[in-house]
User: Which sequence fits this backbone?
């Protein structure tokens, strides 16, 4: 069964084989322009005929699914796909092969998860095309203006490419110079050359300058170790483990203990909320500890002196949710917090919202602008997910204030009873 609409461009196309699930999705998404079917042949025809912003597609057999998605990517490059899967591993396979797959929904479909995923996908698509649409609407006139527009767009593209490259170089340069490493060594070596005295086979140098060079070599060694560590994380496949609530809470406490020296920098406080007891999750303890430490370090770094960082756990329709909440450090240049239009871009390598640097944090394990990228990819490979966004909160003060929330969702381990 499918419902026809007259216009070619629609919000959502749905293919779900089970009529009951299909009707449920249609009812919840009735405020959008929707066309739907429970027949695969009809779904293919509809995908050719219509231009859906979002395609909500049930998985088929893996071999057929991959061929189908290859064809869909060629004819509907602007459509965002949300896959309905039986197993998280299916989504991981699709995500690695196709970058236009935005999200997955695990069966049985939970309506809250469905609506949230579709709303965010449409919002993301609207943001992605809004700038292009507004510019195109201004250039319906003469060919000359069209050429000028294309030239300007190409110029903007080159500038953006140059800006990205500059961000990469700037991030690496700041990382190198943090902790008085290379920056100080360059000056010290200059002084050494100025005041050294050759004496036959040996050269006399000032003792204090030599000692300073040796002491300033430590940050370089730390930087080398940190880069090796990040490369190892990017190459490593973490095994999915079944983790009980006691193991998870021990991991959280251990993560907080290991960043104690970072917490002391601004004399901040980490407030732990009550744990979720009696549940098991699917993830990896070692990678969770890496993730908690990185997110807590970011929260401490980008929040004010003596502020409070909240670490909360709660059950959500998607699984076990963990939220790290921090106040915002005041800045003079750049964007404060994580606005809605940057919720996806913030996980891209080397993406920056502002140019705030603090060399007191040069000992953090991850860095170089790819810490969040590593965390997102690692959590996704384990069946979890992460989001960063702004919230309005008053839990740590008497007034409402804007904060940043890092929200992790970890899948629950579902036990099956014997028949």
Assistant:
């Amino acid at each position: 069964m499918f419902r026809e609409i007259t216009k070619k461009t629609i919000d959502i196309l749905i293919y779900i084989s089970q009529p009951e699930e299909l009707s449920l999705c249609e009812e919840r998404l009735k405020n959008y322009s929707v066309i739907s079917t429970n027949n695969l042949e009809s779904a293919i025809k509809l995908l050719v005929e219509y231009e859906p912003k979002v395609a909500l597609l049930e998985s088929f057999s893996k071999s057929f699914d991959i061929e189908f998605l290859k064809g869909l990517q060629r004819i509907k490059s602007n459509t965002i796909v949300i896959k309905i899967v039986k197993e998280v591993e299916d989504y991981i396979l699709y995500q690695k092969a196709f970058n236009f797959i935005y999200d997955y929904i695990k069966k049985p479909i939970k309506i809250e998860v469905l609506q949230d995923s579709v709303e965010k996908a449409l919002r993301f698509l609207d943001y992605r095309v809004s700038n292009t649409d507004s510019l195109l609407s201004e250039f319906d006139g003469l060919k000359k203006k069209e050429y000028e527009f294309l030239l300007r767009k190409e110029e903007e593209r080159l500038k953006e490419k140059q800006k990205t490259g500059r961000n990469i170089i700037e991030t690496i340069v700041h990382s190198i110079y943090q902790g008085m490493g290379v920056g100080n060594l360059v000056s010290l070596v200059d002084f050494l050359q100025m005041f050294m005295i050759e004496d036959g086979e040996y050269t006399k140098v000032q003792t204090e300058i030599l000692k300073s060079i040796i002491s300033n070599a430590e940050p370089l060694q730390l930087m080398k170790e940190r880069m090796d560590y990040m490369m190892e994380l990017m190459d490593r496949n973490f095994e999915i483990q079944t983790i009980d609530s006691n193991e998870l809470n021990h991991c959280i406490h251990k993560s907080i203990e290991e960043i104690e020296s970072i917490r002391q920098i601004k004399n901040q406080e980490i407030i732990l909320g009550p744990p979720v007891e009696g549940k098991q999750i699917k993830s990896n303890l070692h990678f969770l500890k890496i993730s908690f430490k990185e997110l807590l370090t970011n929260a401490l770094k980008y929040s004010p002196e003596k502020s409070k960082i909240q670490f909360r756990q709660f059950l959500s329709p998607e699984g076990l949710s963990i939220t790290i909440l921090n106040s915002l450090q005041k800045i003079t240049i750049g964007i404060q917090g994580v606005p809605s239009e940057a919720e996806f871009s913030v996980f891209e390598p080397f993406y920056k919202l502002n140019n705030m640097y603090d060399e007191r944090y040069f000992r953090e394990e991850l860095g170089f602008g790819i810490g969040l990228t590593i965390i997102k990819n690692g959590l996704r490979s384990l069946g979890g997910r992460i989001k960063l966004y702004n919230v309005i909160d008053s839990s740590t003060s008497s007034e409402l204030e804007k904060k940043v929330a890092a929200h992790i969702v970890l899948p629950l381990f579902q036990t099956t009873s014997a028949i």
The chain is about 45% helix and 20% strand. Residues 87 and 373 are 24 Å apart (CA to CA). The longest strand covers residues 401-410. The chain has a mean pLDDT of 77.
